Structures are given as structure tokens and as C-alpha cells.
Amino acid sequence: MTVDEPGRPDLATELRAARAELDAAVAAIRDLPGHGQFLGRPGIADAMAASERQPLVYLAAATTVGMAFVVAGPGVIPVPLPDLTDGAVRAAATKYGDAYAAWRRDPAGAERDWTDCLDRVCRWLWDAAFAPLLQPLSRLSRATLIPCGPLGMLPLHAAWCPGDGPTGRRYAVDALTLSYAPSARAVHAAHEVAAAVSPDRLLGVLDPRPVRADPLPGAAWEMATACRSFPDAEVLSREGATVAAVRDALPRATVLHFAGHGVSSLASPLDSALVLAGDQPLALREIFGLRLGLRLVVLSACETAVAGRSLPDEVVSLPTGILQAGAAGVVASQWALRDTAAAMVVAEFYRLWRHRSLSPAEALRGAQRWVRDTTNGDKAAVYADAWREGDWLTEPAAAALHAAVVWEEPGERGHAGIAAWGGFAHYGV
User: Fold this and answer.
1) Using CA atoms, how far apart are residues 276 and 261, in angstroms rounded to an integer?
2) Adjacent-strand bridge partners of 91
3) For residues 181 and 427, is the Cβ–Cβ distance under 8 A?
4) At residue 146, what are phi and psi to the nearest 5 degrees?
5) What residue segments make up the domains of the chain, in order of their start?
6) CA distance 190 to 333
7) Residues 427, 360 contacting (CB under 8 angstroms)
8) Burial class (CB in 10 A: 0-12, 13-18, 19+), 162
9) Which of 169, 173, 153 is nearest to 161 (CA)?
10) Are 133 and 70 in contact (CB under 8 A)?
11) How many CB atoms lie within 10 A of CB 220?
12) What is the radius of gyration, based on Cα positions, of the chain?
């Protein structure tokens, strides 16, 4: 028997309140066109229909043996995952979350512990979740992962084993292009939006101020790169990036690039939000009402895909919520990113997406592998050329990125660590 703290609701009351908030979020999503069956009883027909364009991989832990199901059109391949037990997944998610939280509290003192934990968790993910899938996925070039429960907290795309690549490792993202999604129905809805929306009008939201969080000096480089691909871009920055201004501008956009801070709340999913000027949130409850028609949303440098750890089996996170609100795809960060590394990934992403015509998922994969595998000298040469040519990077952005690497040891790979390149993930299509 336990005694509750004075003035603190008991656990049952807290769980009922969280459950009510979750039910409200689900009801709001089901009101959207095409989402009436959201989180309803899934059917194999839904998965098969969605997988005709891109195979789906369901991953679920269990008490003794976890399972994966690879769905590709009419075929379903079950794959036992002996090491993916409930206990192992929860232990990994707890270690990962605790190490990350400690690093955020003490960036200098706890950085080594965080990066070491990230390495260990991603190494375990290869053996427990990815290695058994290599043969069923061997003929595929891309797949959408649908992880269940706390497995959704973990960066499956960065699972690794020793290999003969430039970094001495082979990662899941080297095997094929990976996206994430909350359900087959969400994938189907995202394909419909992608087919109907042309990515030709960018809305940029740049480092809203004032907010309690730290400024993002590198965000200006990212935004300049994004705008280079959209000559008629509309940008709302700092004090001008208010909730009202963003709400008014979103219906005119088909691409959103948000370089700021976000809040992802699992226990109260409708309160997951983008933080705008004056510390005012643009919450999912408002975003749902806007009936978005966005081909892509890029949420950069703001922990926008970080999930809470309460009620982990039913997640409406910020990126998945934005998918349900009418976006076809979302690129979001799973942890706080260093300015320089984030700007490099974003710059290469836009080059591959807008100037090399890759899909958003393929462009993100290519950008992450390039930032990971190239040496400091390689990067310095590319940015020097971009500075002179000016076709895909503005001169100030190219100069800033060049300055960030030109004085480093040219033969070293300064961004090979998972924390530098692996933070972004692609959701949807």
C-alpha cells in the first residue's frame, strides 16, 4: 500500500486523464477526411493496399519472441525476432531516454555517455530487429517501418554492425531507404496527398523569438539553403513568426521548413506543438483544424520527433500528428542536433531533393550517408565549389559551412558519429 503525496493526483486519476486526452486526439484525427478509421481495428487489406507502392515492415516486441511482418502487395512474410522481447526493448528505451535527458541537462559533462549509449543501443537494434530482416528485405530498395510501442522511440534506421564501409560499419540506412509511419492507413493517406500536391511554394519559419529555448545560429544557413530551391519562398522569422502569422500563411504553402523548437507530448498529444514567437505554441489541436495540404514538412534542430515515455503503446507524436493533419511527408529530428551537422544534412538534403530529383526519403538517406562518410577535406572542397558556383547554396551559407570544416584535420571524418548524422528521420512518403 502506498500513500500519495499531498495535493498530487493518484496514478489512476493521472492515467484516466491521459486516456481522455488520447481519446480526444484520436477523435480529432478521425474527423479529418480519409482518417475515419484511425486507430480502428486494422485489417490486412489496409496493409496490402498501402504496401503496393512501398513495402511495409511491422515490428513488435513480445514477452518471449518479437515478430516482424513484411507486407509487400499480396504477400506477408512473418519474421521471428527472438531478441526483441518486451523487457529488452523497454530496457533499451529507458537507457536511451535517460542518457539523452542527462546530456540535455549537462551537454558538456554527459555528452560522451550519451553518444556511447546511442552507439550501444543502435548496435543492439541491428542484432535484435534488423539482421533477421536482411534476407526478406534483400530485394527491396525501400520500406516503411511501423514500429509498435516503445520501439518507436528508437532510431532503427541507425542500427549497425561492423562492416567494410568508410566508417568501418554497415548501417540499416545503407541497406535500403527507410521511412517511418504510424499505420498502413496513414501511408495510404500520405500517398493521396503526395499525388495531389506539387511542392512548389515554401513557407519558412526561422528561429522564432522570444522563446525560453536557446537561439539556433545555424538555422539561418539552413533556411537560406531551403529558399535557394524555392525562389518565391515566404519566410517568417524571429518576432514575426507568430502563431497568427504562421496560421495565416500555411494554407498558401505546399512545403514547410521550420527551424525552431518543438514540444512532443505523448500523455497529452493534442498539446504537441511548434513553439513560435513569444513562447506561444501552435499545437496539434490547431494544426488539425487547418486541413493542411503539404507535400513535405521539414522540422529541423528542435527535437520534434522525441516521444514521451508514458502510455508508450499508443503514440500520437508531432511528426505522425502532422501526417494525420494532411502532410504527405515529414522530416523531423529525433534528438537535438549540432548546428553545423544539422545544416550540412539539410543542405545536402535539399540539393538531392530539389536539384537531383530524388524523393524526400531518398534525399535524406543520401544526405545522411554523405555527411557521415565524407572527410573534412571532402566537405571543404564541396563547399568551396558551391561558394564559387552558387547554384544550390547561397554564398553566405557555403562560406559558413566551409569555415566549419576547413580548419579540421582534412583526412578525418568529423561527422561519422551517429549523433551527428543520424538524428533526422523521414515519416510518410
Assistant:
1) 8
2) none
3) yes
4) -125, 85
5) 44-186
6) 20
7) no
8) exposed
9) 169
10) yes
11) 19
12) 21
Helix 339-350 crosses helix 219-228 at what angle (to 10 degrees)?
A: 10
Per residue of the chain (429 residues), give pLDDT as tens.
Answer: 333 334 445 545 554 565 566 566 656 665 655 555 555 555 567 777 667 788 999 999 999 999 999 998 778 999 999 999 999 999 999 999 899 989 988 989 999 999 999 999 999 999 999 999 999 999 999 999 999 988 988 999 999 999 998 999 999 999 999 999 998 989 989 999 999 999 999 999 999 999 888 888 788 888 999 999 998 999 999 999 999 999 999 999 999 999 998 877 656 777 888 999 999 999 988 888 887 899 999 998 665 555 444 433 334 578 888 888 889 999 998 888 887 899 999 999 999 999 999 999 999 999 999 999 999 999 999 999 988 776 889 888 899 999 999 999 999 999 999 999 999 999 999
Q: Is the dihedral of CA 390, 391, 394, 399 positive or negative?
A: negative
Matching residue, cell 514538412: 297
AA letter at 322: I
Q: What are the φ and ψ backbone dihedral angles of 97, each rounded to 5 degrees?
A: -65, -40
Buried b (16+ CB within 10 A) or exposed e, 289-327: eeebebbbbbbbbbbbbbbbbeebebbbbbbbbbbbbbb
Other beta carbons within 10 angstroms of residue 105's beta carbon come to: 9
Count of CB atoms situated within 10 Å of the CB of 45: 9
| Cβ neighbours for 249, distance < 8 A, ≥ 6 positions apart | 203, 234, 236
Class of domain 44-186: alpha beta
Q: Are strands 142-147 and 177-180 parallel, antiparallel or unpaired?
A: parallel
Q: Which three cell numbers stand for residue 217?
A: 545560429
Sheet holding 142-147, edge to edge: 75-81, 66-72, 56-60, 142-147, 177-180, 424-428, 329-333, 296-300, 255-259, 202-206, 234-237
**Residue 157 contacts residue 423 (beta carbons within 8 Å):** no
The shares of helix, strand and coil residues in the chain, as percent rounded to the nearest 5, are 45, 20, 35
The closest of 245, 242, 251 to 208, measured between CA atoms, is 242
428 closest CA partner among 116, 109, 189, 115: 189
- Residue 334: in which H helix or E strand, if any? none
